[in-house]
Design goal:
By secondary structure, the protein is an all-alpha fold. It has 6 helices and no strands. The N and C termini lie far apart (54 Å).
Length: 166
């Protein structure tokens, strides 16, 4: 789904560029749809990052703690993150469904803005579920969600051959 929305966004930008350069015509809704797709793509990417435990967060200092202190500290940090996400879900849901004017529409497509802002409660809800699931797996099953970058770095370190004195 993420790649499809990115592909649609890229196709809209590409089509708008081609028609603008070769036919001196700009697709009226092209930039607007591409912008909204980009926003949706970014928020869904944040959900995927939370799934892989690759989200930007300060956790370097946890490596210096003993294992049990590290586990407790990471869990507390994640619960603070979950609390923030749940509060943001509440705020964004309230905004989209209660405070947003029903007549706010996208300028060129005429689609109600509610549908574009709907990504906020969806993404933060999915992130919360993913964070809780990662903590469940870490605490009760002993499975660590490893950031793909960290995994690749550890593979590269294993492949390094020590230099011998000549």
């Amino acid at each position: 789904m993420l790649f499809a929305s990115g592909g649609i966004r890229n196709a809209a930008v590409f089509a708008n560029s081609i028609t603008s350069v070769f036919f001196q015509y700009s697709i009226p809704w092209g930039d607007e749809v591409a912008t909204y797709m980009f926003v949706w793509f970014a928020y869904l990417g944040a959900v995927v990052a939370a799934k892989m435990s690759a989200h930007n967060r300060v956790s370097f200092h946890f490596r210096f703690f003993p294992p049990i202190v590290r586990k407790i500290s990471e869990t507390i940090a994640d619960m603070i993150w979950v609390a923030f996400n749940l509060y943001f879900v509440y705020l964004s849901y309230d905004f989209v469904f209660n405070k947003m004017n029903l007549f706010w529409k996208s300028q060129t497509t005429g689609i109600p803005m509610k549908y574009f802002y709907l990504i906020l409660p969806i993404a933060f809800s999915l992130m919360t579920i993913r964070i809780l699931w990662n903590n469940y797996e870490r605490l009760f099953k002993g499975v660590e969600a490893v950031d793909p970058e960290t995994e690749e770095l550890s593979k590269m370190k294993k492949l390094q051959v020590p230099k011998t004195a000549v």
